Amino acid sequence: MNPNLSITKKTYYALGMVGVACGMTSALSALVLGQSMAALDSVSFGLIGMMLLLLAAVKGQPGKLKSRYFLCFVLLLLSMLNQNPLIHALLGAGVWPLLMHTEAKVGPDLGRQLQAVALSEVLYLAAWVLASGPLTLLQTAANLLGFVRLVARAWASYSLYRAQLADPDR
Q: Does 4 map to a domain?
């Protein structure tokens, strides 16, 4: 038995969607139950990292595109490995906007997703910094904005999947 296994960029974007779903589950657990699910966060980072590495390895892409995917992976990896929470948050906030900026240049109609991801990352980061420092009352708002950030990422990854489904050559 020799099944034809077709792995495309669409498959890689599906990994990203599952990774974001894991992050959303962890965030909902923190919001609703007050319990952190660090294992789901690790799975989320791993799946998104795999997506980025696999996108960087796609044959036939221009080198500039591959290097941007790899830069996204490096930012994600550095954010995961960094022990300073502020540096972790800053590096992590750059991954999805850079990915969406790269994809917006490749495919059509991703401008709104790029704007949503970038704005949600900035708002979350600002609320997180304020909640960690002088305004601890903003912790719930920061958590909610963190979930909104994940919703924007989910919309972005779903849009990437749909764009690849509509045009497999993109």
A: no
Whole-prediction pTM: 0.89
Is 123 inside a domain boundary?
yes
Which structural domain range is residue 114 located in? 9-166
Question: How far is the CA of 134 from the CAs of 107, 137, 139, 143, 146, in angstroms?
Answer: 42, 9, 11, 16, 19
- Two tokens, residue 89: 């948050």
Residues 124, 149 contacting (CB under 8 angstroms):
yes
Whether 132 contacts 141, CB under 8 Å: no
Token code pair at residue 154: 């989910």
Distance CA(46)–CA(48), nearest Å, equals 6
* C-alpha–C-alpha distance, residues 83 and 51, integer Å: 24
Domain for residue 2, yes or no? no
Nearest CA among 27, 51, 58, 23 for reference residue 140: 27
Q: 139-166 and 111-132 are packed helices; what angle lies between their axes, rounded to 10 degrees?
A: 160
**For the chain, how many structural domains are there in total?**
1
73 contacts 52 by C-beta, under 8 angstroms: yes
Q: Is residue 95 part of a domain?
A: yes
> pLDDT, tens digit, for every residue of 63-79?
899 999 999 999 999 99
- Which pair of structure tokens corresponds to residue 113? 């997703």
